[in-house]
């Protein structure tokens, strides 16, 4: 017996388009991002992969991607669950900074350590920074020790795994086709867990915007039948993932 999981990174955001570190800053989709979300929904129909339940972060770009793609596959009515635990990685003091300028200022090694190392977080954001979420009402219930001021990928994995086990796995075990609409780094954390990717190797994994990634999981072990899952449009996904990897460098 298998369970079906579909991972979907949000479509292109306004800050993806401007090449800015985003993290917990709540930017919207661009028109291209909306198109990507619609195309994602169409791919779900083409592949006979209609979700029964959707899990999203608390961020607009993932919430809207889920809505647009579910609308496109006539599944706008399914149950929705949201959690900050699926949010993008908090990018600390880099939030709002231009990626190309950061690369030029700090050099490639430091830039890539901040972007893709497993356990080195960027410097924490100042609570008074214009891009801090310290006073954001949607996180008001978070105890201070859980509310991040910066995160590395390990931190993201540590805070997303409880949600995986407590909320997503029960839906999968109940036989539901589960859509998770989230972010580049929160999905990298989930994929690291699912595929058992090492701390070193995960630096090479990039998740493209708006491309549904299907995982068939063994119902008992919740491990993928095929490592890496299957992108519904593999060629486009490969090209788009390479573009994410190259961000800041052009
Ligand atoms: O800025 C961010 O929040 C993320 C995703 O857009 O960027 P990166 O791919 O550099 O981790």
From TrEMBL:
Gene Ontology biological-process annotations: gluconeogenesis; glycolytic process
Chain coiled-coil ranges: none
GO molecular function, one term: phosphoglycerate mutase activity
InterPro entries registered for this protein in UniProt: His_Pase_superF_clade-1, His_PPase_superfam, PG/BPGM_mutase_AS, Phosphogly_mut1
Biochemical pathway: Carbohydrate degradation; glycolysis; pyruvate from D-glyceraldehyde 3-phosphate: step 3/5
Xref: SUPFAM superfamilies: Phosphoglycerate mutase-like
PROSITE patterns xrefs: PG_MUTASE
Sorted UniProt keywords: Gluconeogenesis, Glycolysis, Isomerase
Residue positions of the active site: 10 (tele-phosphohistidine intermediate), 88 (proton donor/acceptor)
Catalyzed chemical reaction(s): (2R)-2-phosphoglycerate = (2R)-3-phosphoglycerate
EC code: 5.4.2.11
Positions bearing the site annotation: Transition state stabilizer: 183
Amino acids binding substrate: 9-16, 22-23, 61, 88-91, 99, 115-116, 184-185
PANTHER family named among the record's database cross-references: PHOSPHOGLYCERATE MUTASE
Family in the record: Belongs to the phosphoglycerate mutase family. BPG-dependent PGAM subfamily.
Function: Catalyzes the interconversion of 2-phosphoglycerate and 3-phosphoglycerate.
Protein name, as recorded: 2,3-bisphosphoglycerate-dependent phosphoglycerate mutase
Organism, as annotated: Stackebrandtia nassauensis (strain DSM 44728 / CIP 108903 / NRRL B-16338 / NBRC 102104 / LLR-40K-21)
């Amino acid at each position: 017996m298998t369970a079906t999981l579909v991972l979907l990174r949000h479509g292109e955001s306004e800050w993806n388009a401007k090449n800015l570190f985003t993290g917990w800053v709540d930017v919207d989709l661009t028109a291209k991002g909306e198109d990507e979300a619609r195309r994602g929904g169409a791919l779900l129909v083409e592949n006979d992969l209609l979700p029964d339940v959707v899990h999203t972060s608390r961020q607009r770009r993932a919430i809207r991607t889920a809505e647009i793609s579910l609308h496109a596959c006539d599944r706008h009515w399914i149950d929705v669950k949201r959690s900050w635990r699926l949010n993008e990685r908090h990018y600390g003091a880099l939030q709002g900074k231009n990626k190309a300028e950061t690369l030029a200022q700090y050099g490639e090694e430091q830039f890539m350590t901040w972007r893709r190392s497993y356990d080195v977080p960027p410097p924490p954001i100042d609570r008074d920074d214009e891009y801090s979420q310290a006073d954001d009402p949607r996180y008001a219930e978070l105890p201070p020790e859980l509310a991040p001021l910066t995160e590395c990928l390990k931190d993201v994995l540590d805070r997303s795994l409880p949600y995986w086990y407590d909320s997503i796995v029960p839906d999968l075990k109940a036989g539901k086709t589960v859509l998770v609409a989230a972010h580049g780094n929160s999905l990298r954390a989930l994929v690291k867990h699912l595929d058992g990717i090492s701390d070193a190797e995960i630096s090479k994994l990039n998740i493209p915007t708006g491309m549904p990634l299907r995982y068939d999981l063994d119902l008992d072990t919740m491990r993928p039948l095929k490592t890496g899952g299957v992108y519904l449009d593999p060629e486009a996904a490969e090209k788009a993932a390479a573009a994410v990897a190259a961000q800041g460098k052009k």
